[in-house]
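Hello again, I could really use a second opinion on something today. I've been staring at a protein lately and its backbone has me curious. Please have a think about how the structure follows from the sequence. I owe you a coffee for this, so here goes:
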Amino acid sequence: MVKTLPQEYYKQLEEIQVADFVLIELTLYLDTHPTDMQAIQQYNQYAHYSKQLKEKFEAAFGPLEQGSLNRTPEFWAWKSGPWPWQV
């Protein structure tokens, strides 16, 4: 049985994907331009932003990544979320 997810789930997930895409691109750029201080500043800004987005998502919908905190002591929250192919 597939659980219906709220529209906010997809909205927040897309925001995380956008921020993480920027981080990947900045990482690749910084690999070849390691002294670009503006790029380093942007990287740090997006790393912080991505972390905030993930914390907000996990507070509302449960673990996002395998290393995420299990926020409830009553059960293993990782298993209760939708599987990737259900999203």
Summary: Helices lie at 7-32, 37-61. The mean pLDDT is 87. The radius of gyration is 16 Å.
